[in-house]
Design a protein that fits this description.
about 0% strand; about 250 residues; mainly alpha
Length: about 250
């Protein structure tokens, strides 16, 4: 597989825009009609709280919460769709489901809402998958993601900020890493291996390499070894060449 695997399509822009726009519509409906969507979040170890596995990524507490999640989602979903088009939909769907289930198992007894768990799935998946492929473009993407969102790693620990759902962040991290191990990507372009680099290469079988010894010195195999004095005639030509040197007089011009 070569770089033609990465093709720009309308989905690269359409997917993140549609997803984030849907989040803003849900929030508008919430404040416009005074709906209490918080009750539809994840409530750990409660059967009714399982509905939040599906609904919690689309529910946000306030405008600041929604805005802080929207920008990373636009960037990460676009990167996911461009570099991993065949895996993007399943990464989103299963990322939401499994990170939500883990949050439901390990979370504190409170409502957990927001798309930050999905963001951690995307960051972790893109980073580890790119490193695993060892393909220079995907490795560069991994490093770019770390430069932009590497500080998020601190928010998977419980004592950093008790007002956030660190359990959801940790669940997203675990889910994204696991999915990077499970999902297979095509074999990308590998470095060119020349014939002389292969272990079974025999210089004697190559018309060019047989002119060189093991130290790289040129060896003329066309000259008979029993008559080395005739070497001077090997490079001689039967055609005579006349060399003429002319000198052009320069003329002064007014």
């Amino acid at each position: 597989m070569n770089d033609n695997h990465f093709k720009f399509t309308t989905a690269v822009i359409g997917l993140p825009v549609f997803f984030v726009l849907f989040l803003w519509i849900v929030y508008w409906v919430q404040i416009r009609f005074d709906f209490d969507f918080y009750q539809n979040g994840i409530y750990p170890r409660d059967l009714s709280g399982l509905q939040g596995v599906l609904f919690s990524p689309f529910i946000h507490e306030n405008l600041g919460h929604l805005y802080n999640n929207s920008i990373p989602l636009l960037v990460l979903l676009a990167a996911l769709q461009f570099f991993y088009p065949k895996q993007s939909l399943s990464v989103i769907v299963y990322g939401i489901l499994f990170s939500g289930l883990i949050t439901w198992i390990i979370g504190r007894e409170n409502f957990h809402i927001g798309a930050s768990g999905l963001i951690y799935v995307l960051v972790t998946f893109i980073f580890f998958k790119g490193i695993q492929t060892r393909y220079y473009r995907l490795v560069a993407l991994s490093l770019s993601v770390i430069l932009l969102y590497g500080g998020m790693i601190w928010y998977v620990f419980p004592d950093v900020d008790k007002t956030i759902s660190w359990e959801g962040h940790l669940a997203g991290f675990i889910t994204g890493f696991t999915m990077s191990l499970i999902y297979k990507t095509p074999e990308y372009a590998k470095p060119i291996v020349y014939e002389w680099q292969k272990p079974d290469f025999n210089p004697e079988d190559d018309a060019f390499m047989r002119h060189f010894d093991e130290n790289g010195n040129f060896v003329n195999t066309e000259i008979p070894e029993e008559d080395p004095e005739d070497a001077s005639t090997y490079y001689n030509s039967n055609f005579s060449v006349n060399y003429t040197v002319t000198k052009r007089e320069s003329e002064d011009k007014i």
